[in-house]
Amino acid sequence: MPFTFHTHSGQFCNHAHGTLEEVIESAKSKKFHTIGLSEHIPRTRAKDLYPEESHLTPPDLFELFENYVEEARRLKALNENKINIIIGAETEYITPEATSLIEELRSKYSLDYVVGSLHHVKEIPIDFDKETYQKALDSCGGDYNELYSVYFDAQYELITRIKPEVIGHFDLIRIFSPKSEQSLADRPEVWAKVQRNIDAAIKYNAIFEINSRAWKKGLPNAYPLKDVLQELINRGAKFTISDDSHGPRDVGLYYSNLFEYLKTMNIKTLSYFVKDSDNDVLRCVELTDALNHPFWTLNGYNQN
Length: 304
What we know:
Elements: E1 3-4, E2 7-8, H1 20-29, E3 34-37, H2 58-78, E4 84-90, H3 98-108, E5 113-116, E6 120-121, E7 124-125, H4 130-139, H5 144-162, E8 166-167, H6 188-203, E9 207-211, H7 226-234, E10 238-242, E11 245-246, H8 255-264, E12 270-276, E13 281-287, H9 295-298
Parallel strand pairs: 1-3, 2-11, 3-4, 4-5, 5-8, 8-9, 9-10
Antiparallel strand pairs: 6-7, 12-13
């Protein structure tokens, strides 16, 4: 303890910084017990490349992903008994056809886990910048109810088709919405989809991340925001914590805020994964009384 299961590096992600080894070294220096590596699964269409990827092609992304897995395994072996390293990937679910690719790569590279994340609505990125987010909203007739509904319907397909071990930034769709439009609980049709998705993930024992990167984006709390997080608590969900780091400087980013958020929401038990070396099986371990773990004080995250 603690841990993060959502990380990126500039070595394998063009909008991040630093090397994968530097990310791991940063986690070690901050006394992390576990780090999950989760570089993005490659996209297959040139039209889905981001501006910073203009020098790349989809085949380049596939080569980059293979290099990532190779480097991750090298670093895991190098750091045996120093930090628990779990090797996974974060989904790119732009169209339903992505399902077969995600499963293919999970099998081909024997990935330990998958972070199930949605970054697009109607094939338009929602977390790139405000202007692109507005395009996604415009594609839904400027209606936030429709925007949220399309997002949560696509997320439901991702959850039920892929069954990702970790549900990534559950309500990312609120990243650039104005404060007046951020509430989900008072939107009956949308809220029913939120509850449906939560239940679908709980059914196969998924873990929901509480993602501290939301503060970097100016949101009032981590993903998920309080209304959804309270519903997750009410429905008996399991939680882990993630920084969604995009380089070594981001490891543990806003974990002081995260500590306070967990305390405010009375979340005392957190889950993390370990990989049993003798039988190569991924196990979920629960850390009870998590807020009293010495890590928080050691790193100055607990200011009490």
